[in-house]
Amino acid sequence: MQAGKIIGAVVAVILGLVAIGMLVGGAALLWAHTTQRDADGFLKSPTYELESAGYALTSGDIDLASRPGDWWPGDLADVRFEASATDEQTAVFLGIGPSDDVEAYLAGVARDEVTRLGTASDVEYRSFSGTAPADPPEAQGFWVASAAGAGTQTITWDVAAGEWSIVVMNADTAPIVTVDFIAGARIGILLAIGIVTLISGLLFGIAAAALLVWAASPARREPAAVPAAGEPAAVAPAAAPAGAYPLTIEGTLDPQLSRGLWLVKWLLAIPHFIVLVFLWAAFALLTIAAFFAILFTGRYPRGIFDFNVGVMRWTWRVSYYSYSALGTDQYPPFTLQDVDYPARLDVAYPEQLSRGLVLVKWWLLAIPHYIVVGLFTTGLVWWTADFDGDSVLELGGGLIGLLVLIAALALLFTARYPRGLFDLIMGLNRWVYRVGAYASLMRDEYPPFRLDVGGREETAPPVVPPPPNE
Hints:
Elements: H1 3-35, E1 43-44, E2 48-52, E3 57-58, E4 62-64, E5 77-85, E6 91-98, H2 99-105, E7 111-117, E8 123-128, E9 145-150, E10 153-158, E11 162-170, E12 177-187, H3 190-216, E13 247-251, H4 265-268, H5 270-297, H6 302-321, E14 343-347, H7 361-365, H8 367-377, E15 381-387, E16 390-397, H9 399-414, H10 419-439
């Protein structure tokens, strides 16, 4: 695949992710508009149980285009707040006012500021110490919307630019404020936003699909170059022996591995890791496209197949260089093509695939292999770093990682990679990539539950017929 098509595939992935986000967001907005509004057209929050041992509950500053030059569209939305005291006999005050005026009124007053509203029971506060307010809240003249009394108090406010604060108090300024609180919003252009977002998502999706089709289309094949006299010809990876899985993976162990280079290979491989993030995102989207192609035509598009094999090939080279094998110190090339490198991978192209098998093989049929591969890659040992009781870092290690670590320590202290350990690591990696090819719909042959060890899959010896009886 040409460099331009690789870039096109990466751009298509980005456009596809944007399209998915817009489609999901637009659908959510339309769903909210049609099913989640009340009779007055408001979208409502859960009921929050708020409480303060002081004299007031506040929201903190709500900044709505308060700086000069900020723009706020008029009549964009209006909001509604409801508050009712836990004790139905208690009169509650609910108001919205400019933040500066609210701060001046409650300066030195014991209160709690709500800093986070999560789920109905997930509320965080910041407490301020102080005394009782000098005057009742209803005596203040700066409220843009307010209500007071027993039972549920409701205020509706046409949102305007500025810095605002919401305040809930007992109307008689008594301490200990406990209320049930509900917020709601009515956005007049919600339906239009949802439709525009959906249409934009469709357009981005069409653009992504067009780029994917172009990127996956087979390029014109040039005739193979004839090597000059005395120049060695490129060696293709060995074909899979009869009866073997149609994925060929091999590795040639470097006899002169560095004792300590493996300590920094994670750093040296960072450029490859960055590229592979985008390539695997493209791989995922192209596999989805291949799924539908197989479902309707029974064929895996050749351009997509070659690209996806190239991604696997690139991944295997980087893995072999780094921490899936540590089998070579030769830096991996930046290419999807098969090149002369100590790690090689190829998958035989299937001329025909089952239309029905594509529906179940990547999830249901592959479950037993997923369990095994999980143990090989990430599911054997976990390390967790805690900070103040919260998990901040989790790292998984499988059997391959542990064996490669043993090989790395052997290199460090003996400058020698144990051959038997290398053969076992190759067998484990071979199992992983076979399952990867099967799960990504490249082949219908079920991967064998067999550990084919060694750098190359050895061809079975020929069967020699017995000599005829004389």
